[in-house]
Amino acid sequence: MSATTPPLTRAMRRGYGLGSVATGAFGTVPGLLLLPYLTDRLGVTAAVAGVIVFAPKAWDVVLNPVAGRISDRSQHPDGPRRPFLIRAGLLLAVAFAVLFLGPTSPQWAGAAWVAVAYLACATAYAFFQVPYVAMPAEMTDDYDERTRLMTWRVAILALAILVSGGASPAIRDALGLDWGYRAVGLFVASLIALGAWGAWSGTRGVPVRMTTPVSVSFREQLRIVRSDKPFRLLLTTFVLQALATGAMLAGVDYVSRWIIGTKISATLLFLCFVAPALVVTPLWQRYGTSHDKKRGYLLASLLLGGGALLLVLSRTMPTSLLYGCVAVVGVGYAGAQMFPLAMLPDVAGRGGDAQARAGLYTGVWTAGETLGLALGPAVYAAVLTFGGYVSSTGGIVAQTDGAVTAIAYGFSLVPAVLVALSLLALRGYPAGKDNR
Fold first, then answer.
1. What are 17-55's pLDDT values in tens digits?
2. How far apart are CA 235 and CA 379, in angstroms?
3. Contact in structure between 377 and 57 (CB atoms under 8 Å)
4. What distance in Å separates the CA atoms of residue 335 and residue 315, rounded to the nearest whole number?
5. What integer pLDDT is reported at residue 354 of this predicted model?
6. Residue 141 contacts by C-beta under 8 Å, 6 or more apart in sequence?
7. How far apart are CA 252 and CA 125, in angstroms?
8. Pick the CATH number of 11-206+216-426 from 3.30.465.10, 1.10.10.10, 3.30.300.130, 1.20.1250.20
9. Rounded to whole angstroms, how far apart are CA atoms 248 and 252?
10. Would you tell me the crossing angle of helices 177-202 and 10-17 to the nearest 10 degrees?
């Protein structure tokens, strides 16, 4: 299929990519710090904390396709998706600021506050993320242009993740558990608001192909999505890797405290995980353009899973080598983010009728991504529970050898197995441009 839309300018690509400031901050910090906040500040058991982290995001599995359907039917003169960016984005910022402002005792009250506030965050995020991810299919129909667009998005995403995830543990540790977590909430809320405004203002004037609402029923649309084999294979791969990434993010604070044992190690671990993306994302883009997106995705996945597998030895390996293995994971993570996001518009935007369903496709996609990222901390919490991890309300509690082993394996072996399973789905995805 030849391109029928004009090439996007650098400013257009950059403007769209700014939305990743919001998605990166919200997608990272809860996965990094919410589980430790529940177990090591509120004293909630690991099993209950896993449910609290997972349940609000599970709601998005139902809500995201609905958000896609609603944005599909939008006929706003500023574009069908753009109004959602500013409205839902600002609501998300407010809800996140509230997340860490609740009571810390009694324990049930603090846990309930987090559960309700996180549910509000998840709801607002659905109505930001789904229209945002749907936009590339309407901004361009050029196969390689979508890769360039995703390169900007992933580069900005990596920077947002680096800033939010790197700074948040440092802010918490500098201010103490009480004011530190509250300051993190306000800091991340400001990043979310900045990203939402940037995407909304930065995409003003970008030509989009306006569509008419689809006439088939919502159930029929879901049936069409389920019958789309390339989409199902790509979604399965991405969800399993989101689950692996979510488990690793949840483990950063625990590995830092119980395996490495220095205050700054949580920030350093996170920097090793994310910083490589700032360098290698353009290299992944060139590889995908000169070779193939699927081949690039396979290679990135092998680095992601292989680096995680090496971390099985984290309890005995030198700290410098541990950081190096996490950096290998980071190189793979960059490609494993860019390639599927560049491949999604290829399958979501095929044909005239499918174009009008782009929001539904991306609604299902973000529901799967949200489920994976939410299940990751829940799975990690289950591993901690199995290992006998002891929760606390801020003091240092000795952990058994089994609990420390669980911390290490949840950070390494579990993600490696999940990535290996994802490759079974990716192998069946059609290579080249035939899936458009």
1. 888 899 989 988 998 899 999 998 999 999 999 999 888
2. 20
3. no
4. 28
5. 47
6. 1, 3, 4, 5, 209, 349
7. 24
8. 1.20.1250.20
9. 6
10. 150
